[in-house]
Amino acid sequence: MFDKQRLLELVSQNEQELLDLTAKLLQIPSENPDGDTREISTFILEYLRTNGIEAKTYEPDPNRFNIVASVGPKTGKTLIYCGHSDTVPVGDLEQWDFSPFSGEIKDGYLLGRGASDMKAGLAGLIFSMVILKRYDVPLKGELVLAIVPDEESGGDFGVPWLLDEGIITGDGCLIAEPSSELNPTIGQKGSCWFKLTVNGVPAHGSLAPFVGKNAIVDAIRAIERIRTVTDLAIQAPAELKELLQVSNEYLLENERAETRGVFEKITCNIGTIQGGTSANVVADKCVVNIDCRLPFGITNEETMVYIKQELDQLDIDYTIESFGFKSSANYTPAENPVCRAIVDNISYVLKEHAYGVLQWACSDARHFRVHDIPVLQYGPAELDTIHGFNEKVQVKQVINCAKVYTLAAIDFLNE
Question: Residue span of the signal peptide, if any (predicted)?
């Protein structure tokens, strides 16, 4: 067994390399949707190969390819370390106080789009594998690194493809998605994204509402009905009572009291609305993209049945089409070995009590659970900046997470 303190010393000795790696990832644009992640993937490939780790690439899409690498023997258990290289778009550049592709360190923070979600965590996974390889740390099993280019827009070309094709499988998985320092996410809500299309009858705008049928007005009525999903009383399974209680207490302890109950309710976000052709034309079409997140106790199908029942009470011409994220709530028990390996080493590194909680969003973790692979998420983050302007992450968190990743791989594979 490799001494834990010795491993921590090795990470500390090489921490500048970790920060330089993170900075470089931040400096390479990899926005999604409709992005091209070839540049960042090519950089990662070269970094791995420079450090003696050969990786394979898998290309389900011309502009996006997956990277899979491994260290350790294939005779024991397999642990998957997974991260995505894509980010959400940077948005309005005028709203940023620094370049979204900065990668600089200022006041103890690394700056740039993807700093928290999740290039810093991804860098930590890559760096952890390199450290284990560089110093010939003995492993009784295989550590697999899976880097995917397509998570932020639904992930069709990433994790689910790798799993469905049988390219990766394992006894446990860690995804370096953003989390709080002491609380990895061991479960998550389900997701129900859909597009509502409302059709109207065009006419001259000067005669509305006497003639024509305005699709935008009907869409507003439809939205009001759809948003009533948040009022549904949903009963979670009895075995999740403790996890739900712990997760709600976590919200209170982290000054998120306004979100208490989010794990037991459906949330509903009206994301985009597009309708009409001109101010003086009664709109003949309105398209609304909607994101609902589902708690334990209700399925995607049951949610859509309720929504359609509500809309059918209105005198409107509409269609609904699912897209993007679609899943039911899911979790990995806290006592599972992969959860224990991460949680125990968070406590070891930070010298504080760590425990797993639920996540109010969702991620690639759902795909691993569909394939019966226990999974949790833990990564460095400044949570309030995720998907917003001025995204950043604390340098000390980046380093501490890399320490946890390195120690957890040893504990899980060598137990």
Answer: none
DSSP three-state, residue 13? helix
Average pLDDT on 155-172 reads: 92
Asked if residues 312 and 226 have their Cβ atoms less than 8 Å apart, the reply is: no
Cα 20 to Cα 110: distance, rounded to the nearest angstrom: 10
Shared fold status for 4-188+329-414 and 191-250+264-326 = no
Query: How many alpha carbons lie under 13 Å from residue 302 in its C-beta half-sphere?
Result: 13
Percent of the chain clearing pLDDT 70 (strictly above): 99
Catalytic choice (31, 117, 151, 382):
151
CATH class of this structure's domain 191-250+264-326 = alpha beta
pLDDT above 90 (res 201): yes
Annotation says 301 is catalytic = no
pLDDT score recorded for residue 66: 96
Residue-range domain boundaries for the chain: 4-188+329-414, 191-250+264-326
Active site residue 3: no
Catalytic residue among 86, 150, 181, 364: 86
pLDDT digits (tens, 9 = 90+) for 339-381: 999 999 999 999 999 999 999 988 889 999 999 999 999 999 9
Q: What three-state secondary structure class fits 182?
A: coil
| CATH class of the domain at 4-188+329-414 | alpha beta
